[in-house]
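Narrative of activities, Objective 1.

The group set out to show that a structural description can be obtained from nothing but a protein's sequence at a throughput compatible with the screening campaign. Below is one input-output pair from the validation batch, recorded exactly as produced.
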Amino acid sequence: METGEGESRTNIRKILQLIYVCFICVLIGAMITLIVISERNKKMFFVLGTLMLIIAVIGFLFVVIRLEQKQKKRNSVDQRIIDAMTSMFRLNLLLDLEHRKTYTIYADSDLESIINEKHTLAELFVKFCHKYVSEDQLEEVMKFADINTIPERLMEEDYVSCEYRSNVRGWSRGIFLAMERDKTGRVTKVLYIIQKLDMERVVEMERLYENASAASAAKTTFLSKMSHDIRTPMNVVVGMIQVAKKYIDNPEKMADCLNKIERAGVHLQTLVNDILDISAIEAGRLKISARETDIRQLINNIIITIESAATNRALLFETDSDKLIHNFLIVDSLRLNQIYINLLSNAVKFTAPGGNIRFSLWEEVTDDKDYIMLCASVSDTGIGMSEEFMANMYDEFARAVDTRVNTIQGTGLGLAIVKHLVEAMDGSIDVKSVVNEGSIFTVRIKAGLGNVLKENNLCDKIKDYEEACRGIRLLIAEDNAMNYEMEKELLSFYGIVVEHAVNGENAYDMYREKNGDYYDAILMDLQMPVMNGFEATKKIREYESEKNMRIPIIAMTANAFVDDIDECIRVGMDAHIAKPIKLENLLDTLIEKIKDW
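Output recorded for this entry:
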């Protein structure tokens, strides 16, 4: 009903009421007049009195009938409202939080039976949840239905809601709606509504529920596989250390143990990197950082890595990059390397000894003259893939169930990571595969055209690290004693002088005590007690701003996400090196940063 129409009807009702009152007043006046007249003419008084009484009765009956009609109409409207609520809601319950009372506005019969039982408000909602909420959502909905936290949750909101799957009633939405507040804004009365979801929403929620259940099952399977795959190389590491202790005086046996420990450690690092990558992808933290790259040097490094693995498995590894025209391209070299290594490593894993692997690269033109399409194919004569597996091979944690590959280690994340990386780099990936004949993966990635890179890395000119590093004095901020001991031994071998700070505050104090010109660089861990690496770096940079100096600070940490790297640069660090440390990478970075300083 519109507002204007409602006001008009209200005014008419008031006029009718006024007319009726006036009529009664006139009637009373007439009766008094008749009483006076009756003294002169009793017969006339009787006739007129009877007539007026009849008129009064008729008027009274008219008003009563009108009131009954209005009441029936009101009842009809109320019934329609109740019918509408029945079709939309299962429960409308007013909660008086101050006095801990409930007032039922509407409730389905089974819900009403629970309400009529003697419960505290908290007990009432606990019973609701246990009776109607599915087991897998029970904890979430119990937290939502906690009546004690409602005032805090509604301080800044008018309502809070939660959709859940019922054991017997399909999908519903629970809503706490603020009705009254005290002077401080704290809610005192709340309307609790259980709303039926429409079929479209139910279908959507069922789809989301099934997807979440499937993802949960996939991750459970993944954790089971990861437990096995991590424990296997860990068993090698621990076992080979025990063996090495028994052969301390046998250099040949000791070297063999160390080589096996190194291979197991590299495999562990690969597992961890895959997990970190897929976590970053799922959280939307995957970032592409395109820089000018010597593409031929990157390809040569990949070839060296894969040649060694192929030789160990007695595979013929062929390469063809003659059709590459440009030496320098603007591309994310780290991610490009990851894509190619993943595909080539899979080819090595799933190709039997005596098989062939081919790595080919070429360029294709694009509509933009400043870009080319960098193309690569990885082909093998391995076990191939079925059509059923290829339909889901890019899914996280997917791995073919095949007795021929059950002994091959891996997370099942490689192809999923490759797919995400290729798409993030504005590229595409295609595959052709035949069971028992092999596979061909083709990757196309858009890359910008670069210029010849300047020679800005001193390590390119000085291959002898001992000569380049001798005399460098480092301050290492590291709270883990074993990590520091390892780092000291590795760096000292190249003539680097190392001093130890046990936390960020200690590093800041040691740097200040030496007046800022004693150390050549600081290697800074991020997660340390007392003061972490970020805070220590900020304090050092504040101190240096007063002294007009700047020492290279290099993050050396297990925090390896892109966000961590960005934060390091933001607070004033000069570079980031992820643990486990690649020694050559650390030395190259040290020499470059110290030279620039």
